[in-house]
């Protein structure tokens, strides 16, 4: 499901699992938020709202079409990439 949600929301246009592109690698995101209890909810909110400044100046476009549940599922998948 997370993979399909990521493709639908175009995550892979800017992110990959292990290499930085226009956006950070999912593994780097997972490392930054490792051990943070509220990370899944925090990242899900960032996915849906978009933003800038966390990883540089290039803004991440909002993905409001993702349901909150799907955004959190996607965030949990990203956080699992630190393993």
Anisotropy-based shape: globular
Main sheet properties? none
Amount of helix? 40-55%
Number of helices: 4
Would you list the SSEs in sequence order as H and E?
HHHH
Q: Strand share of the residues?
A: under 5%
The class by helix and strand makeup works out as mainly alpha
Write down how many β-strands occur, each being a DSSP E stretch of 2 or more residues: 0
How would you explain this protein's 3D organization?
This protein is an all-alpha fold and 83 residues long. The chain is 46% helix and 0% strand. The chain has 4 helices and no strands. It is globular, with a radius of gyration of 11 Å. Mean pLDDT is 88; it is low at 1-7.
Which characteristics define this entry?
83 residues; mainly alpha; globular
Topology:
Blueprint: H1 2-8, H2 26-33, H3 39-49, H4 68-79
